[in-house]
Known about the structure:
The complex is a heterodimer of chains A (290) and B (388).
Chain A: E1 10-14, H1 19-31, E2 34-39, E3 47-48, E4 51-54, H2 57-64, E5 68-71, H3 75-87, E6 92-95, H4 102-115, E7 118-120, E8 126-129, E9 133-136, E10 145-152, H5 155-166, E11 172-177, H6 188-196, E12 203-209, H7 214-224, E13 231-236, H8 260-269, E14 273-274, H9 278-289
Parallel strand pairs in A: 1-2, 1-5, 2-4, 5-6, 6-7, 10-11, 10-12, 12-13, 13-14
Antiparallel strand pairs in A: 3-4, 8-9, 8-11
Helix pairs in contact in A: 3-4, 7-8
Chain B: E1 2-3, H1 5-14, E2 22-25, H2 28-37, E3 42-46, E4 59-62, H3 65-75, E5 79-80, E6 83-84, E7 88-91, E8 96-107, E9 112-118, H4 125-131, E10 136-141, H5 149-158, H6 163-182, E11 185-196, E12 201-203, E13 207-210, H7 231-239, E14 242-245, E15 251-255, H8 258-270, E16 277-280, H9 287-298, E17 305-312, H10 317-331, E18 337-343, H11 346-355, E19 359-361, H12 366-383
Parallel strand pairs in B: 15-17, 17-18, 18-19
Antiparallel strand pairs in B: 1-13, 2-7, 3-4, 3-7, 5-6, 8-9, 8-11, 9-10, 11-12, 11-13, 14-16
Amino acid sequence: MAVFVDRDTRVIIQGITGTQGNYHAKKMLEYGARLVGGVTPGKGGQVVEDVPVFDTVAEAREAVGAQASMILVPPAFVYDAGVEAIEAGLETVVIITEHVPVQDAMRLAGLARRRGVRLVGPNTIGVISPGLSKVGIMPGYIYSRGSVGIVSRSGTLTHEISSNLTFRGIGQSTCVGIGGDPIVGTTFTDVLAAFRDDPETKVVVMVGEIGGAAEERAAAYIKETAYPKPVIAFIAGQTAPPEKRMGHAGAIVQGSSGTAASKVKALTEAGVIVSPTLDGVLEEVKKRLA
Amino acid sequence: MKLIEKDGKDIFKRFGIPVPQGRLAHDPDQAAAAAAELGGRAVVKAQVLRGKRGKAGAVRLVGSPEEARQAAAAILGMDLGGERVTVLLVEERLDIAKELYAGITIDPGRGSAVLIFSARGGMDIEEVAATAPEAVVSLPFDGVEPVRRHDLYALVKRAGLTGPELVAVTGVLLGLVQGFTAMDATTAEINPLVIVAGGRAVAADAKLVIDDSALFRHKDLTPTETEPQGPLEKAAWKAGVAYVPLAGGEVGVIAGGAGLALATMDTISTLGSRPADFLDVGGGVSVDRMAASMRIVAGTPGVRGILVNVFGGINNCELMARGVLKALDEDHIEVPVVVKMRGHSQDEGWALLEAAGIDVIKKGTTEEAVRLIIQEISERNEDHGGLR
């Protein structure tokens, strides 16, 4: 039983008739994901990559038993699509779209919390349990089945670390992109808790970056729970100049908060191995699996 | 998008928050005229986005139009933390009985917004929280249910306000919550919120930051321009990429994803060189967007080599390779270029780049890619006899 997404997870794509939706439907099917349908209002009855398209999520749930949805619609439509998926009673909703208004993400995260729905994202590559399934846009073949759990704020750094591991014969249990925005549905702490209870995950790699305090909160959780598995962390942006916003809303150092130093200190004190370099992460993982 | 004080106040006013009378001035004559309109007594304030004003003398009290003219002449052109003052706000002076604080910001830890109110204002809110925590109260909200007026009465009472002040301040806070929500703000702050004679609450300052991702819902927003953007920043805005030039660097960075861009910059620094920029190409990259990114980075001062570090996830390696080549063809970029890419359509991308003689890192790590570009830069230097 992998984390969040398994071989049997019945997935739909909201926005399946768009260019991205169609492309990733094909990629998910090639990967072996159990993609059972898609939703685009007004295009119900059509077929994309041999799976049926529905007008609403409720219809897709009724007709093909959808459990999880991957949302790949433009930013202006994400809020409505997210509310629809949550209220239709899906278990897992993954929002890939970037540039979603922060307050839309806030309302969606709030609603998902109240309904007990696992919301991942926005602004994420999604979730992959290599070899089993993926609800995401990651290129499947740079991931491989194994025992390293990865949780990351950065999508492409997840690709980077997973591919570096894969090319060196080390596989992953599940990789979760939590998304780079200020408010996300699933946090480091949520994923760490899931990895703790996942027997396949032996080592956890946590990829953070400057800005915010998510890494500090994860460190507090690891310390409080005497986390039973080795955690290796990498923090991007250690040499970035302060007061400059680097890309998505999270990565900015203001005053003393959100600095790499503060994160490294909190994590180290919690017993986490913080690697100063990306290549160092590989070495630390190898040691822990030896 | 950060707004200047005057733009913020104009928006607050729309949500029922009392603000002082005032107008913008771009030169000393306009400032004198604005002060005359207010009866002579006025305050002249620099309108800047980042710089600190108080200690620099960029906020001045004046008693006559002539004093306003002199104050304006002194403040215009000031350098406030690297930001030149080009616009002033001339507004009525308030008879302040009390200074308070009200602000809303996004709290990623709670996954919600949080309204903070303090019975003491005029200074840094963190300072108040540290020295007089009993004066500071807060209310988280996530927009799933509305914030109601009586929630705010209870909040403001906890901070110790009663009578007309309780009612006036609650009205301001409700306007602030409504404005924050309707305008898709990420920060909305009034510091100080002042009580004037008669118990009226007035926003003496305004800080409003609108979420860039929500600007599609606010097309009517026309912020006052304070500083002209450079051509590279303009080009980046137009191309839809996140770009920050960094002084003193030599390796130009183009990366897919902010995290990878930051990690690439770190690796460059760790290996003894310096990054010249941060550039995240974002998702859904087209040939043109990649070509524009190449041009922007090639034009960044100090760049002696370019490292492209991207993945085909939401992006496509073939399109990105075509963009790199397009810029090289059309713009005669002469500095060495290394491309590390893998993911969707990687074989097509690799083939195109290799056919054009570009060094490609296929399965190597970011560290290997950085070592290669640094090596190519130093080899190029030797060829040129160190002239560059």
